[in-house]
Q: What sequence folds into this?
């Protein structure tokens, strides 16, 4: 029943809404937040920041709307990101309807804010639109999960987290919740069964509890529910059988981040700074949205630049080391990239991701190139293609949240780029 | 009457409360926000962030509590900040009661988080306490005003703001407020007469309207007042005669920032990044708290590191240029440092600042060394002493907000430091 509900929600998301023409919803045209103060329709605030097209502004300006925890890059000079530009924008490929389209047209059609393509460690194509700049941090939504997942996998590799232990070994507060009898591995791979419905038009579904408790959406008048994410997690109940199948749930990532903090005694943002951002030699600080008591949104709240994500992706492609530093053990990267259980994945209702699996909070394509990726709603991607020696970062503000709507086209674009860089 | 009210409020602040022993309110001892999640008394959130001792944490973590606008440092390597350490911590001087005290004891006694002393362009003493680090941004409160004031003075020098024009030339929305018949210069030097009482125990005084509209304090249930700072400013009324005397009012700085944004078409934080932070070669990004529609708190919301403020102070000492860049014209620096009308200053009720004046939102000491300074509640300072070729940055989290309580001691410390560096 849970799986059916997921399928329904995803199918609803995949239905084509009336999309605004991309050129009609550029920030240059919309003029949000450009006067002092912004008046009327020019305002983006908490009441409309996740509405469209206001979201086009919000995804590049989250920290102006929400409290955030900084992820410091450190004091060292940034690691080099050499460029070897190729005219990939004019590469033509057949879209999902069989019609020719160029890479640049694909970017425009999918409301892209930034694209960085790396090949053999060099930036071969880099493009920004919609007022985004190389130094602009962009909200990554569920790409955040993949950072949390790799952190947890590394800790498991080091013996600091036991994937076979119960979640309650680390977070006893969850004893009476869906996670009470769930194993850590079932959280890491999202095979734990928890009732969490995401129907964006139905405020009785649990996604609203998540959004209100985290502060992502303003609370309705008289709201009496949880006022932070961890208190909200305690309210969620089991629905189905743990381990039976893949059930994509943002709340698993929040629990996983909680486990990571308990195992290390450190805040997620400090781990990200110490173990990832500083070691990779990032160009800019990143940041993560926090709730009213400082809990990072470990499943949805990370903000970073496309170039820094390119460094991260390149580190993944190279097996966990970069800039003379080991970020993750190669065994952790290999375990993630080889993927999870494809049969269990089929039960997740994501038919638009045929043949995929999900492992350590990463999507694994199981294609001939061995590709794997992190993905977030509205078009956020870290795509790693080991065979093509390619990494693609795509940050977008697409009007449709769910990946189902754009994925058939995205799939074609990944293939076209992999072919183009190989030439 | 307004001036009397100010005097009363300041006198109340200057009364010695029962101060906690400094060693009893260190963050190491208090343990705020160190567990996941922080429970009960360990929590610092919007309900207690400006209470004591929770404030000790909040002043180093403001962006984890509030929305902020980043002030980017740019991509260049930081400008050098050479060190030439001197044992200034053990320098002994007589405190305001005539008792001997060392510099380090002074720092502890005034709940100091960071101190940087520059002499002839070199860092001669640098100390951090209370978990603060060289890269930690600290809330500067009214030191913020001094940035806004210099920006405005520079624009006036360039002819982009007319100090003799009415405020309404730039901000017609203020026509029906206290600023309706006020000149820009009266805003810059705080001689405009506006009813704005700061009695922290009386929620009918206007400081509460400022705190609620800005979001600095959580709004009471059923709050129907302004939800952003500019809307709040429109509600304030004239009380007294413009230009008659100095009346210290945070709201003047907010109006001045509004004028600056109107004159330049740019957000305060972008001006700070483009014209100040990037040119000075700062080590870290800074940030400013914003209200619900992105308005920066131009009188109270800046956060920066002590080392970056040292660069700023050194630029002031050198007459407006630093790191091979002109930040302000020398005429602007000279006009500010030479001060304003000392007779008018006396009317402001700040007897603890004898002989001072206020010019372009800076405090001018009119002492033999030609010293001038920016100051914020709870012990924030940029102190420039041209004759001693010294700049002092002091960032603190003192339990008493008003400067009156600590100023007699601060004054002695400035003199002791100036004497010590000259040796």
A:
């Amino acid at each position: 029943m849970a799986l059916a509900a997921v399928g329904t929600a995803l199918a609803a998301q995949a239905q084509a809404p009336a999309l605004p023409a991309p050129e009609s919803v550029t920030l240059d045209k919309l003029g949000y937040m450009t006067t002092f103060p912004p008046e009327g329709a020019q305002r983006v605030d908490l009441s409309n920041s996740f509405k469209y097209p206001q979201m086009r502004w919000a995804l590049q300006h989250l920290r102006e709307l929400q409290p955030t925890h900084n992820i410091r890059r450190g004091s060292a000079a940034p690691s080099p990101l050499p460029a070897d530009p190729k005219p990939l924008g004019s590469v033509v490929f057949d879209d999902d309807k069989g019609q020719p389209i160029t890479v640049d047209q694909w970017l425009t059609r999918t409301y892209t804010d930034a694209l960085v393509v790396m090949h053999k460690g060099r930036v071969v194509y880099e493009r920004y639109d919609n007022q985004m700049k190389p130094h602009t941090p962009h909200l990554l939504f569920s790409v955040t999960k993949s950072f949390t997942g790799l952190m947890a996998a590394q800790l498991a590799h080091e013996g600091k987290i036991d994937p076979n232990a119960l979640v309650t070994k680390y977070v006893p507060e969850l004893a009476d919740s869906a996670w009470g009898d769930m194993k850590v591995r079932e959280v890491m791979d999202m095979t734990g069964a928890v009732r969490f419905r995401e129907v964006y038009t139905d405020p009785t579904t649990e996604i609203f509890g998540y959004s209100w408790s985290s502060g992502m959406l303003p609370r309705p008048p008289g709201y009496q529910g949880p006022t932070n994410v961890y208190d909200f997690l305690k309210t969620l109940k089991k629905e189905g059988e743990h381990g039976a199948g893949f059930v994509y749930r943002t709340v698993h990532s929040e629990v996983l981040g909680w486990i990571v903090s308990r195992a290390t005694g450190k805040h997620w943002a400090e781990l990200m700074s110490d173990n990832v951002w500083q070691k990779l030699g990032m160009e800019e600080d990143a940041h993560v949205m926090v709730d009213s008591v400082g809990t990072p949104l470990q499943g949805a709240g990370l903000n970073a630049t496309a170039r820094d994500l390119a460094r991260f992706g390149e580190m993944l492609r190279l097996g966990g080391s970069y800039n003379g530093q080991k970020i993750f053990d190669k065994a952790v990267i290999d375990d993630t990239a080889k993927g999870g259980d494809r049969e269990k994945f089929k039960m997740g209702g994501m038919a638009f991701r045929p043949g995929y699996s999900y492992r350590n909070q990463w999507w694994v394509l199981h294609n001939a190139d061995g590709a794997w990726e992190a993905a977030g709603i509205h078009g956020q991607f870290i795509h790693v293609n080991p065979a093509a020696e390619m990494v693609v970062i795509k940050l977008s503000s697409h009007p449709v949240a769910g990946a189902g709507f754009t994925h058939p086209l995205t799939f074609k674009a990944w293939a076209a780029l992999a072919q183009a860089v190989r030439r």
The radius of gyration of chain A is 20 Å. Chain A touches chain B through 35 residues (CB under 8 Å). Residues 407-422 of chain A form the longest helix (16 residues). Chain A has a mean pLDDT of 95.
